[in-house]
UniProtKB/TrEMBL annotation:
Name by which UniProt lists this protein: Peptidase M20 domain-containing protein 2
Pfam family, one: Peptidase_M20
The Peptidase M20 dimerisation domain, residue ranges: 177-263
CDD domains: M20_Acy1L2 (cd03887)
Family: Belongs to the peptidase M20A family.
SUPFAM superfamilies assigned: Bacterial exopeptidase dimerisation domain, Zn-dependent exopeptidases
Recorded GO CC terms: cytoplasm
Entry's Gene Ontology BP terms: folic acid catabolic process
Annotated organism of origin: Rouxiella badensis
Molecular function GO terms recorded: dipeptidase activity; para-aminobenzoyl-glutamate hydrolase activity
InterPro entries: Amidohydrolase, Bact_exopeptidase_dim_dom, Peptidase_M20, Peptidase_M20/M20A_hydrolases, Peptidase_M20_dimer, Xaa-Arg_dipeptidase
Length: 395
């Protein structure tokens, strides 16, 4: 295809999304106003599916046995790549959409609508994968383990942030709930008969804090007490804490995990309590496909959006797209929505602002334009795949 024709296609995408903008903004604001927690996103998933079904996408609900996961497919019937657009839509407890998933999910739906509506003749296959529980539970991990990303040539999504960056790392992480079982007793008249599960929790925090001087700089360990007892005059028979462990890689995370779990067991032993550990799924580190990220950057440039380099260190969280990026070429670029940081009330407000909605539309345009690059240029697709396969051979 000539470069001139590709530019015409991309201009059509821009035009299509500008026309769809009022409905897309309404969708994002509806999800923003009705936040749902991980694995409970019934209304949010339904709201995202509705315009895809109306546009003629083949809809599969309950994907991978997850009630709020879905796949919406447009298959042109012509040979070509299979591209995944990933949608997130779960919210945070107490904070609502303080990570902007209302924008993330809507942007992927918008990009898919622009591609099918504007170019039904495009070769290949577009799949919107609705991935629940990014915040708590790892929906992408569950779907990845069941093979739902094995056939994709590339997977893309965007994330709102305080800066526009096309490449940013992601830490490996795992969560764990430490459940301590002691023995109840009257805290005043017969404390000697009790075993304090709360003491075991407190000693766990102390032990982990003592480990911090021995962790490498990339490691983050943070926790909360989720149950500390029921009354001050009863020695707590049950107490519970939840921790999230992070490191640069899954391999490094394994070492951190062993040390933290040993600290918890030591706390149980010294307190006389019994310990049970509930370990969550492991979020893998992110493998950014630099070639694909560069194509996305070029499309942002065509939209007049300035991209800044990522910080040299710090400011990195975790996401289950890391597990997808171990399976296929993937990108997770960021678009600026204001001077706000995720997981704060200020970010939740920005995710429902005009600036947030504008970033969402620009992200949708760039996602769809990048899909056109991969579909219409075998050379560009080959470069993306070669980079991924080279990385995979070394890991």
């Amino acid at each position: 295809m000539s470069e001139c024709t590709k530019i015409e296609q991309k201009n059509k995408i821009i035009y299509t999304l500008d026309n769809l903008a009022p409905r897309l903004k309404q969708l994002a604001l509806h999800i923003h106003a009705n936040p749902e927690l991980s694995f409970e996103e019934v209304a949010s998933a339904a709201a995202l599916i509705a315009p895809l079904r109306e546009a003629g996408f083949e809809i599969e609900e309950g994907l991978g046995g997850l009630p709020t996961a879905f796949r919406a497919t447009f298959d042109s019937g012509k040979p070509g790549p299979t591209i995944a657009l990933l949608a997130e839509y779960d919210a945070l407890a107490d904070l609502g959409h303080a990570c902007g998933h209302n924008l993330i999910g809507t942007a992927s739906i918008a990009a898919a609508l622009a591609l099918k509506t504007g170019f039904p003749e495009l070769s290949g296959r577009i799949e919107v994968i609705g991935t629940p529980a990014e915040e708590e539970g790892g929906g992408k991990i569950i779907l990845a383990e069941k093979g739902f990303f094995d056939h994709h040539d590339a997977a893309m999504m965007f994330h709102p942030r305080d800066k526009t960056m096309v490449v940013r790392g992601g830490l490996a992480c795992v969560d764990a709930v430490f459940k301590f079982y002691g023995k109840a007793a009257h805290a005043a008249s017969a404390p000697q008969n009790g075993i304090s599960a709360l003491d075991a929790v407190i000693h766990t925090f102390v032990g982990i804090n003592a480990l911090r001087q021995l962790f490498t700089d990339d490691v983050r360990v943070h926790g909360i007490i989720t149950h500390g007892g029921s009354a001050t005059n009863i020695v707590p028979a049950y107490a519970e804490a939840k921790f999230l462990l992070r490191a640069n890689t899954v391999k490094g995370l394994s070492t951190v995990r062993d040390k933290v779990f040993a600290a918890a067991q030591g706390a149980a032993d010294m307190s006389g309590a019994r310990l049970e550990i509930e370990e969550g799924l492991t979020y893998a580190e992110r493998n950014n496909n630099l070639t694909l990220a560069e194509f996305f950057r070029q499309n942002l440039d065509a939209l007049g959006i300035e991209v800044v380099p990522p910080p040299r260190s710090g400011g990195i969280g975790s996401s289950d797209i890391g597990n997808v990026s171990q399976i296929t070429a993937a990108i997770h670029p960021y678009l600026r929505i204001g001077d706000v940081m995720p997981h704060t009330p200020e970010f939740a407000e920005a995710a429902g602002s005009e600036a947030g909605l504008a970033a969402m539309l620009n992200a949708a345009k760039a996602l769809a334009m990048t899909a056109v690059d991969l579909i219409e240029s075998p050379e560009m697709l080959r470069a993306v795949r070669e980079e991924f396969l080279s990385w995979k051979a070394q890991n």
